[in-house]
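Table S2 (continued). Query chain:
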Amino acid sequence: MFPAIAKRIAARARLSTVASLAKLVRREDGNVAIEFAIVATPFLALLFAIMETALMFLASQTLETAAQNSSRLILTGQAQNQGYNMASFQQAVCADLASFFNCNNVLIDVETAQTFSSANTALPIQNGQIQNNFSFSPGNPGDIVVVRLMYQWPVFVSLLGLSSALSNMSGNNNLLMATASFRNEPYQ
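Corresponding output:
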């Protein structure tokens, strides 16, 4: 009697297991989770790349604004009359920069030029490294002056190979550069 009952229970259990597996295969409840996992990775990578690019543009625009504002000190002769050197000019630049810049890492180059077409406005990068031969020469009244502010911005998003597209230096850094070229006013 007991072996017959055991056979019936085993047969029902097999049918129940096969039916459960067939039912599980037909269910679509987990499809959404799997589809989200497939779509979420590239979506998040794209979202972070957009945020990284937007932050880099914000930093670049902030550096441009600081270059224009601090260049006005040289243009009007205030820097020359007050005896500014590289350190004091850097303090004036840093007063215009946002808190996401480390002021000690801002590179400054102030040079005079004979003509506007001969002014050096190129990125000072060679083989992925900065060629630091910067000087501070604000010039005299009527001189053509080029002010270049540079900052090594780190590129964090390395998903989908975008770090190489956003960086122009070795070590996943992008050299942001803001340039102002002008002729000094005839100050006294």
